[in-house]
Specification:
Elements (H helix, E strand, L loop, with lengths): L9 E4 L5 H12 L3 E6 L2 H12 L5 E5 L5 H15 L4 E4 L4 E2 L9 H28 L2 E7 L10 H20 L6 E7 L9 E3 L5 E3 L12 H14 L3 E3 L2 H12 L1 H10 L1 H7 L2
Parallel strand pairs: 1-2, 1-4, 2-3, 4-6, 5-8, 6-7, 7-10
Antiparallel strand pairs: 8-9
Helix pairs in contact: 1-6, 3-4, 4-5, 7-8
The structure holds NADP nicotinamide-adenine-dinucleotide phosphate.
């Protein structure tokens, strides 16, 4: 893989103070990309900036909420102010939820869509004209939950499916400007301490660690797959064995996938802890 293409490229990664976003920022920084970090918690963001600075000093932190229009705009404005261009936008921010539809506080849908859908739209709109100049990349971080609706995660699945439509529209609209649009279907991945999910009543709940759990990917392997997606300018990247099987079966035999899920409800409940 020709990783040299990242030298001096400017990459914005939303939600990059921890987890997968941080792993992507570190991977791109080691390949020479200039990094624009983002998150809402300033302290955590500055800790991550310190880590990037052990690689190089071409990094800035933009503390803002991308689920607000002003946050998306600020992120892009600060990147341009610091580095004069944008080559890569990774829309990584995303939050999960738990609970069957019947039990959900309807606000849960709003919280999830604000973060997972609008939180990608708000940085993307102001970034597009800069990405046209650089013939750059927009990458959306989706989930296996974006391939088919799964139990107890309806709002999350719906939000990740919406990213597919958004990505497809932008690919066509921006084809003449040679903007690459990538969509990554990520499987169950290790999480950092303190990662929250939204409970059915709308409150935040901290997730259990997944370290050592069977079938859990490393954040670094996800980051490498994102880099590969950009280098090859591929549209869809599906991660994990389970993801590849699901992506093959779902469009052809949706009834079979449904039957498999119904037979494995216990496993789903375990994974949703
Ligand atoms: N982990 C998995 O198993 C898994 C599987 C499939 C897909 N994914 C997807 O991968 C992406 C990253 O997941 P993750 O597990 O790494 O999440 P995470 O550990 O919860 O990290 C989320 C990051 O986003 C920031 N953030 C959250 N909301 C934000 C907002 N509105 N504006 C700005 N920053 C915000 C957080 O910092 P602050 O809280 O300080 O803002 C943090 O840096 C998500 O899109 C997720 O859906 C994850």
């Amino acid at each position: 893989m020709n990783a040299k293409i990242f030298k001096g490229k400017v990459a914005i990664i939303t939600g990059s103070s921890r987890g997968i976003g941080k792993a992507i920022a570190l991977e791109l920084a080691t390949k020479g990309a200039f990094i624009v970090l983002n998150g809402r918690n300033r302290e955590r963001l500055l800790e991550t900036e310190k880590e990037i600075r052990t690689i190089h000093n071409n990094v800035i932190s933009v503390c803002c909420d991308v689920s607000e229009i002003s946050g998306g705009q600020l992120l892009v404005d600060e990147a341009i102010k610091a580095f004069k261009k944008i080559d890569i936008l990774i829309n990584n921010v995303g939050v999960s939820m738990r609970g069957n539809v019947a039990d959900l506080n309807p606000e849960v849908f709003k919280t999830i869509f604000d973060s997972n859908v609008l939180g990608t739209v708000y940085p993307t709109i102001p970034a597009i004209r800069h990405l046209r100049d650089s013939h750059g990349s927009i990458v959306f971080i989706s989930s296996l939950a974006g391939i088919r609706g799964l139990p107890s995660t309806s709002a999350y699945c719906a939000s990740k499916m919406a990213l597919r439509a958004l990505a497809e529209s932008i690919r066509i609209e921006e084809a003449k400007y040679k903007i690459h649009v990538g969509l990554i279907y990520v499987g169950i991945t290790e999480i950092d301490e303190g990662k929250e999910t939204i409970a059915s009543d709308g409150s935040q709940k901290v997730l259990e660690s997944r370290r050592g759990r069977k079938g859990v990917q490393s954040k670094e392997s996800v980051a490498r797959a994102v880099v590969k997606n950009i280098v090859t300018r591929k549209f869809i990247t599906v991660l994990s064995f389970l993801g590849k099987v699901n992506a093959f079966l779902q469009p052809r035999f949706p009834w079979l996938v449904e039957r498999i899920i119904l037979r494995n409800m216990k496993k789903f409940e375990e994974n949703n802890k």
